[in-house]
Specification:
With 477 residues, the protein is an alpha/beta fold. The protein is built from 21 helices and twelve strands. The strands form four sheets. The protein has a five-stranded parallel β-sheet, covered by helices on one side. A three-stranded parallel β-sheet has the order 1-4-5. Strand 11 (356-360), helix 18 and strand 12 (385-387) form a beta-alpha-beta unit. The chain is globular.
């Protein structure tokens, strides 16, 4: 029997152990998509206890922020909401989480949490109800008293080279500017452009948001579609000047309707008047924005991420109480591969296809994405169009193996830009370690099965590339 999560965790062969320990393990991290708060990085936030950094909860303004993966886990164990996102004492919340984690065999959360305990706290004992009191004291003592356990210290411990946060176009990026001007901060923190609220003309709050977008470019209103596109471009250029390397679009599905700007303007005017829009009109408006921004991304050398196929906010009761991103989302089933192809083709025809990363939350789309990206590669950069890392509900051992196997079968795994955390936690960098172990074990199994030669030079290039170097090249870091 193997030891529990020792130094060779998930590394089943000698080749896998060699690739991980000698090549992947010590490389810096490029976390090109996450949801960390740049203010907390600049102010070097310290956490009073493990619950603050692990579970989070309700903010003073009434909003909720934290690790919704853990919230789902606790709900699945029948825990009352007051212990999950509420104001129960932190230690009681921690005990409830420990109870749930004991039941999480087969869940990546079990591995992530223990990797975090090992890497950041030096705790190698499994977290159980019995061990929880000891682990609570050890972790809290480190968080409160170790000078290297602040937000910046945790980033440094994880050897992070680049962080791409997720930011709204109307954000003034003041905290990013402060970080860039602070010579004591070694990690590069870049804003990422997330224009979902402008794109989602059919969702609540859109009209009010457009007023805020207007103010962000010094105007009272945006009277026409041309003004909207100009405002979005101005804000993108503002982001670019402050280190933006990547954009991100969170879409229910990728739309495509071949609308002109004039047709989109007619839809825009209807929406401003509060009139109902058809699905075709919504998609036409969205397509015009996506094409316009795609061309701008290409001009500015900003990568475009498209995340889709999430069925959001399914529990109406929790959504009304806590809002979005609180653990009540699921996988959707959409058939928008043809729309993606039309969107990329329209940009490519004009010589304006940006570097693009495609993520579907539905793993059934892996093969489609693997074949689709091959239609739009060119000589500008290896792997210009990427099948993105196993996302959200797929960033588990099975999901990562399936995504990389599919990419290897249908494309070039060696050009893959690798892992991202997509997380709100400063401890979640352990997920990169998890990913690298799975990568090295997968590659090692192919080598030891005679499916790829035991060519150390080639293997080093592939493993180091997927772990770190491809992302540095792709995002021009």
């Amino acid at each position: 029997m193997k030891a529990f999560m020792d130094k060779d965790f998930l590394l089943e062969t000698e080749t896998a152990r060699h690739l991980f320990h000698d090549y992947a393990e010590k490389l810096p991290l490029v976390d090109y998509h996450c949801h960390l708060n740049p203010q907390e990085i600049y102010e070097d936030r310290r956490f009073d206890n493990l619950v603050e950094v692990w579970l989070g909860g309700q903010n003073p303004d009434g909003s909720f922020a934290g690790d919704h993966y853990k919230w789902r886990l606790m709900r699945s164990n029948g825990v009352e909401e007051d212990y999950i996102t509420g104001n129960k004492p932190p230690y009681e919340r921690f005990l409830k989480f420990a109870e749930a984690l004991e039941m999480a065999i087969g869940n990546p959360m079990y591995h992530w949490c223990h990797l975090e305990l090992q890497q950041f706290f030096g705790v190698y004992e499994p977290l159980t109800v019995e061990s929880a009191p000891r682990i609570w004291e050890i972790c809290n003592d480190k968080l409160r008293n170790d000078p290297d356990m602040s937000a910046r210290g945790l980033i440094a411990k994880a050897n992070v080279a680049f962080i791409g946060t997720t930011d709204d176009p109307i954000d003034d990026l003041a905290w990013h500017e402060k970080i860039a001007n602070d010579k004591t901060i070694s990690v590069v923190v870049g804003p990422s452009y997330r224009p979902d609220k402008a794109v989602n003309i059919h969702k609540a709050g859109w009209k009010e948001y457009m007023e805020n977008l207007a103010r962000s470019v010094g105007k009272e209103t945006l009277p026409t579609m041309a003004d909207v596109l100009d405002a979005l471009t101005q804000r993108l250029e503002y982001f670019h000047a402050r280190g933006c390397k990547v954009s991100d679009h969170g879409l229910d599905y990728v739309p495509f309707q071949a609308y002109t700007v004039a047709q989109a303007d007619a839809v825009y005017q209807k929406a401003l008047r509060g009139e109902a829009l058809s699905v075709q009109e919504v998609e036409g408006f969205q397509t015009v924005i996506l094409l316009h921004l795609g061309k701008a991304y290409a001009r500015l050398n900003i990568a475009m991420q498209l995340h889709y196929s999430c069925l959001r906010n399914n529990n109406a009761r929790i959504f009304k109480l806590q809002g979005a991103d609180t653990g009540i989302d699921a996988i959707a089933q959409n058939t928008c591969g043809g729309n993606i192809a039309q969107l990329l083709s329209a940009l490519e025809e004009e010589g304006a296809l940006p570097k693009t990363i495609l993520y579907s939350l539905n793993p059934a789309d892996n093969a489609q994405l693997g074949t689709l990206i091959g239609c739009f590669q060119d000589a500008t950069i290896p792997g210009k169009v990427q099948h993105g890392s196993a996302w959200w509900f797929n960033d588990n051992k099975t999901g990562m193996i399936d995504q990389m196997t599919s990419l290897g079968n249908l494309g070039l795994l060696g050009n893959f830009v690798g892992m991202l955390t997509d997380s709100r936690s400063f401890l979640s960098y352990a997920r990169h370690d998890y990913f690298r172990r799975i990568l090295c074990n997968l590659v090692g199994s192919w080598v030891e099965n005679g499916e790829y030669p035991n060519n150390d030079t080639a293997l080093k290039k592939i493993v180091e590339g997927v772990s770190y170097r491809n992302a540095v090249r792709y995002f021009d870091l």
